[in-house]
Amino acid sequence: MLLIHDLEERLRALDFHDFEARMRQLLRLHYGEDRGDFVVKSHETPAAIRHALAGYFAGDLTAIDAIPAATAGTSFQREVWAALRGIRPGTTLGSRLDHSHQITRAAKVTAAAKLVASLS
């Protein structure tokens, strides 16, 4: 696993080794060029993140809720990601849309649905 966290130990990115090029491309998109707004270097994963991921991969799908995360992007994008984090594991796309009341504008619902569909 490739994991990016900030100095406050908030998760910024997580992906599998096979997708490192994609992750670096997305980091550049959100944070600027490597060595500009961010630096990727080997570092020990914070214990809280490590324990939550271990719990998740051991079958506790809610363990990752304990991981503090921060995302770049517009306020709209951050609001959508925050709303998506509130959706419980195992729900269907239809039930995810039932949670759309958490997102205030109709356009956000459409964007969130497209985002969820693209992740499935």
Describe this structure in words.
With 120 residues, the protein is mainly alpha-helical. The two termini are 20 Å apart. Helix 3 (75-85) crosses helix 5. The chain has helices at 20-31, 47-57, 75-85, 93-98, 106-119, and strands at residues 2-5, 11-15. It is globular. A two-stranded antiparallel sheet has the order 1-2.
Poorly predicted ranges (pLDDT <50, ≥5 residues)? none
* Strand content range: 5-15%
Specify the biggest β-sheet.
2 strands, antiparallel
Helical content band: 40-55%
Supply the number of structural domains: 2
Protein traits:
globular, 8% strand, 45% helix, 2 strands, 2 domains, mainly alpha, 120 residues, two-stranded antiparallel ribbon
What layout of secondary structure does this protein have?
Blueprint: E1 2-5, E2 11-15, H1 20-31, H2 47-57, H3 75-85, H4 93-98, H5 106-119
Antiparallel strand pairs: 1-2
Helix pairs in contact: 3-5
Gist?
With 120 residues, the protein is mainly α. It contains five helices and two strands; from the N terminus they run E-E-H-H-H-H-H.
